[in-house]
Design goal:
Layout: H1 4-19, E1 57-58, E2 61-62, E3 66-70, E4 105-109, H2 119-126, E5 130-135, H3 137-151, E6 159-164, E7 167-172, E8 177-183, E9 189-190, E10 204-206, H4 211-214, E11 222-225, E12 236-240, E13 248-251, H5 252-270, E14 277-281, H6 320-332, E15 337-340, H7 343-347, E16 353-355, E17 359-360, E18 363-364, H8 367-370, H9 373-376, E19 378-382, H10 387-402
The structure holds 2-acetamido-2-deoxy-beta-D-glucopyranose (6 copies).
């Protein structure tokens, strides 16, 4: 561990560069369709019961407290080439990543077992419903993962993908179900809401405005929210409350809290807890500084092929203050919102990022860029198949409980 002053400086100097990757998202290149069955997960887990709303405990079992188990027999749950909806940003194998062990880990809670992921069952749950992921490019990866987990059991011609910026919509026609992504990197309104034209450098967040987005969320049956990394470019952020002419600099933590209040007010006055179900994802960790897990080194997640073993590992990039704001906001809500507390389990996965096997501005990194991982490795986003599949398996466990099938 280095002294905080050094780490602060690094946070400040590295986040901006790495965030540049976030600027050119939404360049979906759909590859040729090809159908294969999702692999069976194995194990004999029973569906979970006794999930507690508003928290992460199930019958005394914390789904987020556990360990990664190497299980190449059942993981990954789908193959990179079998899912036509993956974008070049996340297809690390196709992009030249030499190792593949990162696809073979299964998350095992200490006190219980995750239910076996069953795409058909999930489609039954989603029958006549809309599932929407709302947030930034991390959420977009989770949305892609969910689509890939499900799509192989749907025959050709019975599924479709539409772009309707700032949304992307996957439909399973026979089930009248959709799995949707909505781009809103700050959840509230901002000058970064255009799905392609946005700049992290000149962020301006409207802390008390959400209606431009939220009117498109009305009536959605299941919503999964996430917002973190866009806030973290600098410790202060330009924002407005009320008049758009009155731009002020706010501490990021204050601004985040105010934005989540705006969101919470919308939730409380618009959500029918009997028919709608809301989730909030805790922050997705980054692995930008290898000295945090390998003393004396000065690199990042590049060439990491194995998870971190230290069960208490926590990276400097994961702000406990920001996590606390999410926790407090959810606790104060009159409506149950389930926290998907995925930060700790993802902290271990320094091996799961796209690193240099990804694109920048819609183009694969050149071999020259690849040979300079300290400048070009993306240690924010995740490969698929990979870690976000586990987030969705946990989400599936909650859905199975919240929407029991007859
Ligand atoms: C739920 O939890 C209670 C108390 O822990 C237990 O008695 C009950 O059997 C559980 N229900 C199911 C379906 O497992
Ligand atoms: C939230 O969920 C808990 C546990 O299931 C339940 O006891 C409580 O009544 C719920 N609160 C609301 C406001 O629905
Ligand atoms: C299809 O689902 C939508 C909600 O997503 C619902 O409004 C509509 O009534 C459903 N249509 C049929 C034919 O069930
Ligand atoms: C806020 O905006 C002003 C005016 O554009 C700019 O000078 C300042 O650097 C911005 N502050 C931050 C934190 O971006
Ligand atoms: C990656 O790490 C392995 C050891 O784990 C090492 O042999 C190899 O040289 C490294 N590759 C690069 C490009 O640094
Ligand atoms: C989320 O998980 C972390 C680490 O496992 C834990 O410290 C924290 O208390 C959890 N947060 C909530 C709100 O449950």
């Amino acid at each position: 561990m280095k002294p905080p002053s050094t780490s602060d400086r690094r946070v400040l100097s590295l986040f901006p560069f790495l965030l540049a990757y976030l600027l050119f998202i939404g360049t979906a290149r759909l590859v040729k369709e090809n159908f294969r069955l999702i692999k069976d997960q194995g194990g004999n887990a029973k569906p979970l019961s006794n999930l507690t709303n508003g928290g992460s405990l199930i019958d005394g079992c914390d789904l987020f407290d556990g360990k990664w188990v190497l299980d190449g027999g059942t993981r990954p749950l789908y193959e990179e080439e079998s899912c036509p909806y993956l974008t070049q940003q996340v297809t690390c194998g196709t992009n030249g990543r030499p190792d593949s062990l990162y696809q073979n880990w299964r998350w095992e809670p200490h006190a219980c077992k995750l239910p076996r992921f069953d795409a058909v069952k999930l489609l039954e749950i989603l029958r006549g419903k809309r599932l929407m992921f709302i947030g930034d490019s991390i959420q977009r990866t989770q949305w892609q993962s969910m689509v890939c987990l499900i799509q192989s059991v749907i025959p050709p011609g019975k599924k479709s993908m539409h772009r309707n910026p700032p949304m992307k919509i996957f439909r399973a026609e026979e089930f009248n179900a959709s799995i949707e992504f909505y781009w809103a990197p700050f959840i509230v309104e901002s000058n970064s809401d255009h799905f392609k034209k946005h700049s992290v450098l000149k962020r301006l967040v409207k802390l008390d405005s959400i209606s431009k987005h939220s009117r498109r969320w009305e009536g959605v049956d299941i919503m999964v929210f996430e917002s973190y990394v866009w806030w973290m470019y600098k410790p202060i952020i330009n924002a407005t409350i009320g008049s758009l002419d009155n731009v002020k600099e706010y501490d990021v933590t204050n601004a985040y809290e105010l934005a989540l209040k705006t969101w919470a007010n919308w939730i409380e006055s618009n959500i029918n807890p009997h028919t709608q179900k809301i989730f909030f994802m805790s922050l997705s960790p980054t692995h930008l500084w290898s000295w945090e897990w390998k003393a004396g080194s000065n690199e990042n997640c590049f060439n990491e092929s194995y998870p971190i073993q230290d069960p208490s590992y926590w990276g400097t990039g994961s702000s406990r203050d920001m996590m606390g704001i999410v926790r407090d906001t959810l606790q104060d809500l009159a409506i149950n919102v389930t926290l998907l507390n995925i930060t700790q389990l993802s902290e271990f996965r320094k091996d799961g990022h796209t690193s240099v096997y990804t694109e920048r501005r819609g183009k694969l990194l050149t071999s020259e860029q690849r040979s300079d991982p300290n400048s070009y490795a993306d240690c924010i986003h995740w490969c698929l198949p990979g870690v976000p599949d586990t987030w969705n398996e946990i989400l599936y466990a909650y859905l199975l409980h919240d929407f029991p099938l007859h």
